[in-house]
Amino acid sequence: MIARVIEWSARNLVLVFFATALIIAAGVWSLRNLPIDAIPDLSDVQVIVLTDYPGQAPQVVEDQVTYPLTSAMLTVPRSRVVRGFSFFGISFVYIIFEDGVDPYWARSRVLEYLNAAAARLPDGVTPTLGPDATGVGWVYQYAITGENLSLAELRSLQDWIVRFGASRAEGVSEVASVGGFVKQYSVTVDPVRMRAQGFTLSDIGKAISESNMDTGGRTVELSEFEFMVRGRGYLSGTEDIGNITLRSIGGVPISLRDVARVEIVPNERRGIAELNGEGEVASGIVLQRVGANALDVIENAKSELDVVAQSLPDGVDIVPVYDRSNLILSAIETLKTTLLEESLVVAGVTIIFLLHVRSALVAIIMLPIGLLMAFTAMKFLGIGANIMSLGGIAIAIGAMIDAAIVMIENAHKHLERAAPDKPRIEVLIEAASEVGPALFFSLLIITVSFLPIFALEGQEGRMFGPLAYTKTFSMAAAAFLSVTLVPALMVVFVRGRIIPEHRNPVNRALIAVYRPIIRAVLKAKSLTIIVALAALVVTIWPARQLGSEFMPVLNEGTLMYMPTTLPGLSVTKAAELMQTQDRIIKTFPEVLTVFGKAGRALTATDPAPTEMFETIIQLRPEDEWRPGVTTESLGRKWMPPCNFPAYRTPGRCRSGHASTCCPPASARLWGSRSSAPA
Fold first, then answer.
1. Which CATH number is 193's domain given?
2. What is the H or E stretch that residue 114 is in?
3. Final residue of a structural domain among 133, 163, 196
4. Do 40 and 387 touch, CB atoms closer than 8 A?
């Protein structure tokens, strides 16, 4: 059957090339619309319920908010784990679903159960769903700096101008704010005056809430015009609040300012941001929607921020502090380079051993078409392009062209030995049919070699599944093209003067070396097997000494410190420590920017406490580094002055944090192999 397919393909060039054109068009479309990211999202399908309960201790939050919500979420369909965390004034509930559940179906189910559970919560407490994003979705971060502007003014710019502009970008789930001061009105009562006038705190609170409202009326016609009547009562500043009348005695009103002081103060902060050791700033975090194209999201966010920057006051700048697009573009460039190098190697090897330039075009043309077929399968199965899925393609590239090279070489052999009057196409069909079936099934065997990886579940499946899929798609495409497109291309390109193998000096030299070795090996069969087994045994020890990593180390051009301090650290002290740390790191000439965050941003995807620091270090291009300096040596130099034990890349760190199936408490130990407990 395979031989018939080969013969049909060689005799119907127009149909084969037309189908190839359709495959190329579908592959190009799939490649342009394929979600692209640098790292795989290892997070479970989860929905986060965030509930604010201001001013309450963690135990109160646990008893009155977290426990009722957690118990209500246990019956959500297809939920696997429900986990709750209680902090000061805030509650996080994570509902983790089975693999394969649609995230938006999960959100709708949680919302149904949340409506019923909300009735069990204290008055005024309203739970909300977190964004349709994960911790891995932190694709872009920026800081807002400004000359002669206070932290309150910078935060106001972020909350009311910059954040809304970035949120307009396609694919953005949320823009979270952190750092700066959020302004609020504060009423500080004088207990002595309040007691003298006979007021209580509830009286003052009631008077403020009742005074902050508008009332509607009706319309009045005057001089053929219609006027709307309304009562304006919204408070617009400290003066309006101070003028609120609490009581009137003998026609003399007693205002709020008579018993209290009204002023604008910063709201309580649970997160701060610092840049380059120069002081605090306001900052924003762009979160990518689940399943969106990270590269497009980043570019869209940058475009919107550029538009917003034009309307900001003079001296205000939006400084990027983390940009994952650099890593994504590097991964894409690596694949392009690998494909180009492989094509050049194939062309070089074919030309050297066959001394026929046009024959090399058969393998060179087949390779990118096979990759486009793999991209098409990825698009229709919803598999995004990341470092693991592209790695599967890179692994398959070498084996994809084996069949084409073998068929070309066999065609040359047949053309050398063919009778002068025999049609060339018949010779090519005979040569391809001779080795085509065996090559087809050998490629299928390689294709199914990764099938056991499909049995992996959880994080392992999400990590290595894309690699297995793309490797399988690529090899299946190569097997299909080897019996369809390759014979057709051979008919087109394998023509002209074919140089016999014995006249090729390279082939003669290699055969002269190869034949004595193979004769010696066949004569000493037992010795050869013993030497091979001994080599296998010798490799056991170095194999046991190799380290292992669940996720490969990626050179993002950006590093991340995540030190922690003692629990209960104040915001003021955290800002002081973080500024000192950033100032030290910024002294290294290889560092471009240092951005530190302590505590949590205003997003459900960031439950970090105040004592947890996240320091993102952007490095300059490596050609600007001092001689002999590497990323590892920089990390070792930072450790002594900053007293930090380790550093990681942001993408790898976010992937680790996305693993909500791991226990919330863990310990990490550092040390050398030689160190041992006494």
1. 3.30.2090.10
2. helix 103-117
3. 133
4. yes
Torsion angle of the four alpha carbons 286, 292, 293, 298, in this order, in degrees rounded to the nearest 10: -10
Tokens of 352: 């050297």
Domain of residue 623: give its range: 558-657
pTM of the model: 0.80
As given in the structure block, the two tokens for residue 7 are: 């013969």
Q: Hey, how many other C-beta atoms are within 10 angstroms of the C-beta on 174?
A: 22
**Domain shared by 364 and 502, yes or no:** yes
In a domain, 16, yes or no: yes
> How far lies 170's CA from each of 32, 138, 180, 300, 632, in Å?
16, 15, 27, 6, 37
Residue from 47, 36, 138 nearest 101 by CA? 47
How far is 133 from 297, CA to CA, in rounded Å?
A: 13
- pLDDT tens by residue, 343-394: 788 778 878 877 777 888 888 888 889 889 998 998 888 888 877 787 788 7
Q: Does some domain include residue 168? A: no
Q: What is the DSSP-derived secondary structure letter of residue 626?
A: P
Q: What is the pLDDT of residues 110-148, one digit of tens each?
A: 999 988 888 888 888 889 998 988 877 888 999 999 888
Task: Say if CB 284 and CB 158 are below 8 A apart.
Answer: yes
Query: Measured between alpha carbons, how far is 132 from 107 in angstroms, rounded to an integer?
Result: 8
Query: E strands along 417-467, which residues?
Result: none
Q: Are 395 and 361 part of one and the same domain?
A: yes
Task: Decide if 144 contacts 178 (C-beta within 8 A).
Answer: no
Task: With H, G, I as helix, E, B as strand and everything else as coil, classify residue 530.
Answer: helix
Tens digit of each residue's pLDDT (9 = 90 or more) over 525-571: 899 999 999 999 998 888 887 766 656 666 777 888 887 777 888 88
